[in-house]
Predict the structure.
Amino acid sequence: MSRHALDELGLGPIWIRREQLAALAFDTSDADTNEAIEAAEVIAAPAPAPASAQIPTPKPARPSNKAPVIVLPDARTRAAPAKIETSQDDARSREIATLDWDVLEEKIRACTACGLCEGRIQAVPGVGDRTARLLIIGEAPGAEEDKQGEPFVGAAGKLLDNMLAAIGEKRGDGVYIANVLKCRPPGNRNPQPAEVAECAPFLARQIALIQPTVIFAVGRFAIQALLKTDAPISALRGKVHRHGEIPVVISYHPAYLLRNLPDKAKAWQDLLLLADQLTEHPRK
């Protein structure tokens, strides 16, 4: 979909002009700078659209020229419950698998299973509707998330909120947001396999408690944890994958999109596919 078409839909503020790139100054290697926050506010501020361009309903129509390619698992995968690869401490995993919400969050906040606990301000369990039909899974908390104890609260969070608004969804309203890692890696470095394995029982229990109808995974490490693949995002986009019986739509992480503006057009197509899945899989 062209930028002109997005502007006609009243979605222009989400996909900013390329010449504004220099103004973003977004750096995911440390805390969000004031410039990044200001840039996100520019993205977040809705521009008035002409009356003729108002969207009659919050849900976008399925694109008529492209049908999503569905990647279905084989019968054995569909019959077995989905598993996220965990550490070798089976007793710990079994215990976590029995926890209710309140105790689960207490366990996450007090977790010392890996070295990330030494440098965190606080763990970030997740936020939103505990009976959500849409579960959004990111990679790991950043500096602002570590301070506030909530995922996606910096510039990337503002962009994520706008992305959700573009398809008629809202943080906390039928939506739950979590990360693969519950603690911030030092300097926002990439998650390490051992850290992902230690956090995996927490994410698996969150999925089991929420029982979402659709999962939206953003970022390479979230996608790898759910789909067990090292294929690039570019090769996985545009298809509906499965985590057990749950449809999974994948896309780029909002922090990546802030630094790579041309890929926002691709992310918009991912959002349309996500909207289709939410329509096809309503809450039972």
About this structure: The longest strand covers residues 246-251. The CA atoms of residues 10 and 48 lie 7 Å apart.
